[in-house]
Amino acid sequence: LPIMNTIDMMVVEKRLLAIGYDALTANSLYGELTGFAQPLINFPQVLTQAVSISMVPLVASAFMRKEIRFMQDSISLGIRYTIIIALPCAFGMSALARPILLLLYPAQKAAAIEAAPCLSILAIRVIFLGLTHALTGILQGVGKQIIPVRNLAIGAVCKVAVTYIFTGIPSLNVKGAAMGTLTAYAVSAILDFISMMKYTGTRPDIRLTFVRPFISAAIMSVCVMISYKALIHVLPNSLSTMLSIMIGAVVYLFCILRIQALTMEELEGLPKGKQIAKLARKIKKL
After folding, report:
1. 264, 273 Cβ separation under 8 angstroms
2. How does DSSP classify residue 203?
3. pLDDT band at 286, cuts 50/70/90?
4. Do 212 and 261 meet the contact criterion of CB atoms below 8 Å apart?
């Protein structure tokens, strides 16, 4: 994983200099990527890694006891948990990239605004990074530890190519590096998913696991954008952003329950699940 950041360090500024940016501007653009956008992507990992860590002993135990059906059900649920956590984080940060950066960096407004497009692109990485974590835990559980490393290495090679090509396009500049990072984790997650199906025989329900949470997250992202645009006329950015995030969380939880992407029992299995389920029951009554 640290190699991904090393690739940016080795490639990005050199490519920016090659297309005509001076050293100061190239350094500033690189700082927007690594100093403003990338750190925010690390926050959702706390939750997705919790799912990943719990998957290793669960899958390993079932695999050793040859409880294949239980193992497959656990894997499907673990992937669904990951998607349900990662999608709203990704869509929400992408939709509110500029307001969130202005909220966190009020003293550096110009740089925060410039970094917003990078965050919008990198935010989608949360989905693939979360999947990579979960699938790595699953593959480790069935004794295939080297496969996620190989797949991530393939993703890193793709990142070098995409970053080098797209960062060299003046209209994209540092956004090309964000696209390279997104590509790397997308490739890694897809290869891990194929490997997981091969070695565990698990075939997650695509509609339940991906389509329903995607619809819920899409509705949520529209709601947060509308609410922010309405609130910013009467409230400062900080309050507008925080209220929009809260509205988005309630809308997403309502949609997840309404289209039955998750049951109350499954909701309680999430990190802080009992508190979330308690809130969900109140929303359901309304």
Report:
1. no
2. -
3. low
4. yes
Q: Tell me the torsion sign for CA atoms 185, 222, 267, 67.
A: negative
Instruction: Give CA–CA dist 260/254, Å, rounded.
Output: 10
Comparing CA positions, the residue from 162, 231, 172 lying closest to residue 11 is: 162
pLDDT of residue 152: 94
**Angle at Cα 183 formed by Cα 102 and Cα 135, nearest 5°?**
100
> How many residues are listed for the chain in this entry?
286
212 closest CA partner among 257, 278, 269, 266: 257
How many CB atoms are closer than 10 A to CB 118? 26
Residue range 259-272: average pLDDT? 74
SS3 assignment, position 72: helix
Distance of alpha carbon 117 from alpha carbon 12, whole angstroms: 16
In angstroms, what CA-CA distances link 97 with 123, 187, 202? 8, 24, 36
Average pLDDT, integer, range 53-71: 90
Contacts of 211 (CB under 8 A, 6+ apart): none
Q: What is the DSSP track for 162-196? A: HHHHHHTSTTTTTHHHHHHHHHHHHHHHHHHHHHH
Tell whether the model's pLDDT for residue 270 goes beyond 70.
no
Query: Rounded distance, CA 228 to CA 244, Å?
Result: 6
